[in-house]
C-alpha cells in the first residue's frame, strides 16, 4: 500500500498507542484510534507490498505474505503453519486469507452454557453482530440475497460467481436435502471506491485469494482499514519486529523495543495493543514475561477442524478457477444427531496444485505412482471441506522452545492433539462430506485430514485466574495493555475467525476510547 | 498433448561488430540436425544496414521482436562479440519475465563482449572510429579490421564475406557501438544469469581472450564452462565453424537441452500478457535445465545421491526429468522452509543430513527394495537406526515428500502436464482473471493437454 506521504513519529515521541501487527486484529482499531485524533504507530514484522505485485505462484507468494519463520509443531496431531494459516506483511493474515466470511452463530458464543463443554464468550451476540455489520458495510462483503439460516441478513454486494466445485456441492446437497447457498465472501463483486482506500475492482474470479489479491477486490487490511488509518494520521512501520516491552515501576507499559534492519529501536507509548496473532502475541508475552499472572498465556491453543473430502469426476472441474469457496451450508452448525459439542460449516473447495499435493502427502500419506496419479487427476477433482469447532484443552498450548531465532526470540513450540470431541466432529463431517461428493457424481473419493487457524492463546474472560484479558480486551495485569487478535477467542467458534476478529477490533477500540482520558 | 514437447529448438544467433547473420551459415549447417539456427541481422548491419535505432536497448528490442515473431518456445542464444552483450541483456530480460518471451534454455557466448564496458585500447577505438568518419568503411579499412581479428588467414569464401559485411555496415551503427554500446555498463541490469551457459574464447584473441572471458563473462554466468579454441582469433564463427558447431551441439545435448520441455502452446500462454511479468520470470527460471554437475549446496554428494534415489521412487518422472533432489538441496541451502517443522525433529538441514546418512545404503538397492523401505518409513516402522527414531524418520520423510513433490509441481512442464494454467490468471496491464468457471468448459486461450478420462 502507499505509505509515502504518511505522518511519521519519532521513536522518543510518546505516542498514544503502539499497535503490534496490522492484520484483522490491529488494522480496524488502528483506523478507529487514528480517526479520533490519537497519535498511533503500527509496527509490522513483515514487508509492505503492493497488490499489483502479488503472484499466483504458490512458492513465491508464501515467501511474500506468509509467516515463514520456523515454528515447532508437536503433539499427537501437529498442526501446519506457514502457508496453512500464518500471515506476515502490512495487512497480516488478511493478505492470504480465503475471505470466507460467515458470521458466528449465537450458539457459538454460548457453547459452555448449551453443551457443558468449552467456554462461553463474555460478549453478547447482538453486540458482536452489530460490529460485524459495521465491518461488512465498510470493507465490503458479498453474499446471497436470502440467507437460509438468518433470513433478515442482507449483503451489500451480490454473490461471487460459482465455479465447478460450487455447482458440484450444490448438486450434492440438493440430492441429499441439505440447504446450501452462495457463501458470504469478503470481497467486492462490483467496483467499489473507498473514501481513503482508493479504487477496488470487482472480483475477476482469478482463484488465487490465498496468494494475495491483485485487484483489491478481496477484503485485505492494506486496501481497506489501513489506508483509512494512514489518512487519519497513523504511521505504519513495516519490517519492525517487536521483541521487548518496557514498563515503569507500576507495571504499566512505557515503550516497546523493536528491531528494524538489524537495529534496535525503542518507541515510547502510553498504550500498547498486541494484535500479532495467535502465535506471535503469546510468544511475545511469554518472552517478555508480561501479563501472565494467570499462567494462561499460550494455553488453550485451538485449531479448527478442516477435514476435506475430494471426489474424482468424469468432468474437468479445474477448481483453481474462480473464488475457491463460494458455497456454504450451515446445516451442521448443531447437527441433530451430534455426539459432540459444537458443529461445523461446510464450504466448496477449489485448490491450487502445490497446496493439494502437500495435503495429499500430509493428510493421505501418498507417495510414488499413487501421488503422481492423484496429481494427474488434479483437474478432475473437486472437494468440500469443513471449519469445525475445537475445544480448548489443557494439553494444547504454546511454549517457548530452547531454540532462538535471528532476532534473539525463542521459537514457539506448539503442542496440539485432537481430542475426542474433535475426532467425533471429524467422523460426522467425513460422513456428510463423502455423501455430498458421492451424490454429486464422484467416481471415487479421498479424505484429507487437516487443521487450520491459530486461536485462543491469550483468551478473554471474566475470571482473571482463567483468562489473560477482560471482556473489554484489556490485560488483567497491565492496565495500558490491550490484546486483539485470534488469540483472545475463548472458544474457537464454528465460523472462520477473521470477520469476527475485525469486529472485535472495532469493539476493542470503542472500549479503549470509552476509558481513554486524553 | 496438444503440441509435441519435442518440437525443435531454435538458436538465435547475434553477430559481431561489422558482421551479419550470414557469418553463422557454417555453424548453422553443421548443427542443423539438432538445432535450427536463426541468425539475426542487428540494426545497422547486414540486410538491416538501413535500419536506424542502433543503440543496445534498440538492438535488444529488435532481437526480442524477431524471437517473438518466430514463435519459438524453446530456444537458446548465441552471441558473438558485440552480439554477446546484446544476448546477455536479452537473456536477463527473459529470465526476469520482462520481455513477453518464454523458453530460454541456455546461452552460448563466442568471444563475447561482457555486460560491463568492453576492454579496448583508446588508440584502437580512435582508429576504428576514424574509418567511419566519412561514411561506410572502405575496402582498406575492412581488410585491416578483418586481419586484426583472425588467428590465421580465413578461408577465401569466409574472408570475402567478412570483408563485404564490414563494408555493408552503416557508419552510424559502427560508431554507436564504439562510442556508446561497448562502453555502457550493464552489469547491474544483467546481474547474474543462473542458467546453462557455454563461453568460447579464441586462443589468439586480444582484449576478449580467455582470461577476459573468465573474468568478465564468467562472473555473469556462474554455470558457464569456458573453453578456448587454440590458434583462433576473434572471428570464431568464421574461423572455426565446425568446432563452434561441435561445442554448441554438445552444450545442447549434455547441458541446456536436458530436462522436460514446456509444450509450445503452454509456453506461448506464459509468454502472453495473460501472465504477469513477475510470474513469467519465476517460471522461466524454473524451466531451465538443472546442472548435472552441480555441487550440492546443503547436502554432501552422497546425501544428494541418496535423495535422488528416493526422489525417483517418491515422484517417478516419465522421460526427461527434473532434478528435484538438487532443487530441494538448493531450498535447504537458502534456508527456505515452510514455516514450521515437527517439534520432534532437528532443524531441516540437520534432519535431512542425518536421515540421508542413515539411508545411504539405499543407493545400491533395487527399486523394489527401496519401495519396501519407503513403506516402512512412511508408516513409522523404520527403526533400524539410532540416528533417528521411527517416529522421527516418519516425520522427516513426510517433510521430504512434500518438498520433493512441490519442486516437481513448481516446474512449468509439470503444470502443463497436470492441466493447470492458473499462472495465467491475470497479467500486468489488464487483470483478466477467469471468465468461464464451469465443469468441462474452457476459454479460447486455454491450452490444456488431453488426458484420458
TrEMBL record, chain A:
Gene3D superfamilies: FAD/NAD(P)-binding domain (3.50.50.60). Coiled coil: none annotated. InterPro entries: FAD/NAD-bd_sf, GMC_OxRdtase_N, GMC_OxRtase_C. Residues 398-504 form the Glucose-methanol-choline oxidoreductase C-terminal domain. It comes from the Bacteria. Residues 86-304 form the Glucose-methanol-choline oxidoreductase N-terminal domain. One of its GO terms (molecular function) is oxidoreductase activity, acting on CH-OH group of donors. Transmembrane segments: none annotated. Keywords: FAD, Flavoprotein, Oxidoreductase. Pfam families: GMC_oxred_C (PF05199), GMC_oxred_N (PF00732). The keyword Nucleotide-binding does not apply. Belongs to the GMC oxidoreductase family. PANTHER family: LONG-CHAIN-ALCOHOL OXIDASE. This is GMC family oxidoreductase. It comes from Labedella endophytica.
